[in-house]
């Protein structure tokens, strides 16, 4: 990827302390695939932050959070963050276009009469979802009839889904494909109800030069193959470069 020559205003806006403080969501296993021995996150999301820091000519500090909701809440702590671009978050975060996309769909239990994604949103159906995930926020806005049952931890979503006999479990397709293997007769539905737009964001109160450069960086990262190379290097299945 060629050097993009950021202005001093952009550097100051994105790294006012002289170090790029990058907010990283640890709960998305497609974007953070592991941790180094010193705890440093490893994956596509950290790669994007590191590449941005290189363009700015500064060091990077990873600020890690257990879920995307916590990343959003900590907007005063970081300079950029890699999370799904959602309208509720855009009230206080300026987002770039997406650099990667992930399909969201449903898992249904053995014997379920539900055959399509559209059939989930019916009166009487209960849908388990991780609270404040990008796909959960989408469902909050768009489900008209089904009831959402929100859980705080992605690790407990499957347990709640099973223990309460819910009708569907919402999630990212790659994660659901691994869960369905544990449940004889369960199915992951074809199709999708949304696509999580994984983007880079910066606090809305920063100088506009920061966002302008961030937008340029993301487009260059996609067109140069940086994003695709990172996905391949980490062996991630189910994550694609955004168009």
Describe the protein's architecture and organization:
This protein folds into 2 domains: 138 residues, D-Maltodextrin-Binding Protein, domain 2 (3-Layer(aba) Sandwich), CATH 3.40.190; 93 residues, 3-Layer(aba) Sandwich (D-Maltodextrin-Binding Protein, domain 2). 32% of the residues lie in helices and 26% in strands. The protein has 8 helices and 13 strands. Helix 1 crosses helix 7.
Note the main attributes of this structure.
13 strands; 2 domains; D-Maltodextrin-Binding Protein, domain 2; two-stranded antiparallel ribbon; 26% strand; eleven-stranded mixed sheet; alpha/beta; 243 residues; elongated; single chain
| H and E string | HEEEHEHEEEEHEHEHEEHHE
**Could you tell me how far the N terminus lies from the C terminus, measured between alpha carbons in angstroms?**
18 Å
The number of helices is: 8
The structure class reads alpha/beta
What is the beta-strand fraction? 25-35%
Shape: elongated
Oligomer: single chain
Question: Quick recap of the structure?
Answer:
With 243 residues, the chain is an alpha/beta fold.
How are the SSEs placed, and which strands pair?
Blueprint: H1 8-14, E1 19-25, E2 34-35, E3 41-42, H2 44-56, E4 59-65, H3 68-73, E5 80-84, E6 93-95, E7 100-108, E8 126-130, H4 134-142, E9 147-151, H5 154-163, E10 168-172, H6 173-180, E11 187-188, E12 194-203, H7 208-223, H8 226-233, E13 240-241
Parallel strand pairs: 1-4, 1-5, 8-9, 8-10
Antiparallel strand pairs: 2-3, 5-12, 6-12, 7-10, 7-11, 7-12, 7-13
Helix pairs in contact: 1-7
């Amino acid at each position: 990827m060629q050097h993009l020559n950021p202005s001093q205003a952009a550097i100051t806006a994105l790294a006012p302390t002289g170090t790029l403080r990058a907010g990283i969501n640890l709960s998305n296993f497609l974007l953070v695939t592991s941790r180094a021995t010193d705890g440093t996150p490893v994956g596509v999301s950290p790669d994007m932050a590191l590449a941005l820091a290189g363009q700015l000519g500064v060091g990077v500090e990873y600020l890690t959070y257990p879920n995307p909701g916590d990343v959003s809440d900590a907007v005063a702590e970081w300079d950029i963050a890699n999370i799904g671009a959602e309208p509720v978050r855009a009230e206080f975060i300026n987002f770039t276009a997406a650099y990667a996309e992930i399909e969201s769909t449903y898992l249904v239990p053995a014997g379920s009469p539900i055959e399509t994604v559209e059939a989930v949103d019916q009166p009487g159906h209960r849908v388990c979802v991780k609270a404040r995930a990008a796909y959960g926020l989408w469902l909050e806005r768009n489900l008209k009839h089904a009831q959402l049952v929100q859980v705080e931890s992605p690790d407990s979503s499957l347990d709640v889904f099973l223990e309460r006999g819910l009708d569907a479990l919402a999630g990212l397709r790659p994660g659901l494909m691994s869960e369905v293997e544990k449940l004889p007769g369960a199915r992951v539905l074809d199709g999708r109800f949304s696509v999580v737009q994984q983007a880079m964001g910066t606090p809305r109160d920063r100088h506009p030069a920061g966002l302008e450069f961030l937008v340029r960086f993301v487009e260059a990262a996609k067109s140069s193959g940086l994003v695709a190379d990172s996905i391949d290097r980490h062996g991630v299945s189910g994550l694609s470069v955004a168009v």
